[in-house]
């Protein structure tokens, strides 16, 4: 009779098994969990703790009101949020897609998808409500440069980051809940998300956690056999960041394998409709402003973290059009390769595995690979390969890059002779190498399913074989009967 209790981490993961020796060893066959501290509640508590640590990591910039240009790089506490509060008109509560000529003359258009713009605008409203709704009309008569130096606005700017952090913290808890409930017998896999170093370091650089939670929701909905909800999550995620759209490719592979084409049609239709509905307010109030996100990303050149930046700094210059063409050709070829792997695999791959491979391929050749983009992969990675060793190897490259990019921007890596910063190039290369390592592990798990720890118990509802074997050994050792 299969046991419906969740797999014990100290029996399931070799790293945790070894670490458990310092606190009494792995869980025994007759161990019982705490009545109140269920796995999901523990994961939510750890997520909250690590998110607070992320807020503490940004404290040096917060205490200096985000005004010390060198400190934000030296102490690696940079965030986009405070600078966009004034720079995109939120200090005046300007609608991100306002087509008013005066507003557009004062402020650049928000260059993010609508989900992030709506969230940033809503956080600005809450911030100004906390401050008693100051007179934004009077602010409109002052030059933008003066607003940036206004004492009241500087305080608002700091509070704006705090408000955004609290809201993102709540959203991240929802993402952790989704992940903890994706595989019924493996809730502890979500601990890899909750306690991820990259969540601490990168969570508050921008608003990417909005899309991360929607991706987690899509993974949860798919395992619950709810293609409509899956599509809605993907559509809303795509309205927040482009990359959740790629999950439809993972669903396509699965539906081809299972001949469940109706589910793919339902998910795709729901994604398209929810994306359109989310974008309509922006489209109707400022069509040209809404298009800025698409034109901005098409026209930008080689940027931070990308292999293109290394090549351009090494003397191999490429224009934006060339980078776009080569990147899309590579990505299309990558997607074809993922399709082939998914179709030839002995068993139908899991959505997290395929989604991880597709998004990782997009990032490898993308013209910009900002430090917070690692969050895009996080929920997919922890469910695709829920092993602490592999996750830490991958994230070690991200941690190295996190430090290197801020030191690079602060000018601390510039050689005395004025040459290009080779250490930053090395950090980019090592980051990509660690990502390729995890890609290789996931591909192996797909092609040889016996290595896939989630499938180890043949399905998502039974304990892994290793845990069952440990139970039998414990029972034999203590000569106690095993309940049937």
UniProtKB/TrEMBL annotation:
Sorted keywords for this record are: Cell membrane, Membrane, Transferase, Transmembrane, Transmembrane helix
Q: How does it sit in the membrane?
A: Multi-pass membrane protein
What's the chief localization of this chain?
membrane
Localization in the cell = Cell membrane
| Taxonomic superkingdom | Bacteria
Q: Where are the transmembrane segments?
A: 36-56, 112-133, 160-180, 192-222, 228-254, 261-284, 328-345, 351-370, 391-410, 422-443
Which is an annotated Pfam family here? GT87
The record, for InterPro entries, names: GT87, UCP010361
Family membership, please give it: Belongs to the glycosyltransferase 87 family.
Q: What is this protein called?
A: Glycosyltransferase 87 family protein
